[in-house]
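Late entry, written up from scratch paper. The run itself happened at the end of the previous shift, but nothing got recorded in the book at the time, so transcribing now.
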Amino acid sequence: MPRSSRSNPLALAVLVCLAEKDMHPYEITTTLRQRATDQAVKLNFGSLYGVVASLEKKGMIRAVETIREGKRPERTIYAVTDAGRTEMEAWLAELISVPAHEYLRFEAALALVGALAPDAVAELLRTRAGALEVEIGKARAMEHQAKEEWGLPRLFLLEGEYVRVLQETELTWVRALIDEIESGTLDGIGGWRQWAVDGTNPWADLGGGATAAAQADGDPEVDAKAPKVSKAGRTRSNGDN
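Output as recorded:
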């Protein structure tokens, strides 16, 4: 499967399930939910059938048997092919070894944060910190239950632990940012407060004296290369999208 086709983690989850044993789609869904994999991979029964059909068309899995239990509809059991097993291993290896930018919603908000007043942002960050504390508490309780009551080894809790550690790191960072905003020690806070009061972006002409002079002279080449500042104050080059 081309790397460009590795866009749906649900397809990888199907391959992993079928690498364990032959299953029909309903059993795959049940297995993923029992293991809480649906917390890491977006799962719904309708999309699963589309993924299964796509994997079969690409030769990654094959139908091996059709069964009927009582009055239930027929169910097709699938097995992973050699090509599917090879693709599963390569896909997992890529996800584990190669960091990828995922365009997080919070990251987008931070890139545009200058559009709001500093005090308002501090209050919103405080709300976020409270929500993070709740989520971290839930995650710790779930980990404890999984280990102590269900007897699961850490191997089967790694994805939840990873998310919790990210949340804990984010919480520490958010608290520090709140402190910097409120204490006035955040680099650029003075200009940000001015911006909030009079609507004037103090960094609108950011780009350096030489570049500014060239732009004033109407040099089109320099003007095309000069960094631009969005409404939120983030610089970007004209080559960026």
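The first helix runs from residue 9 to 20.
(Scratch paper discarded after transcription.)
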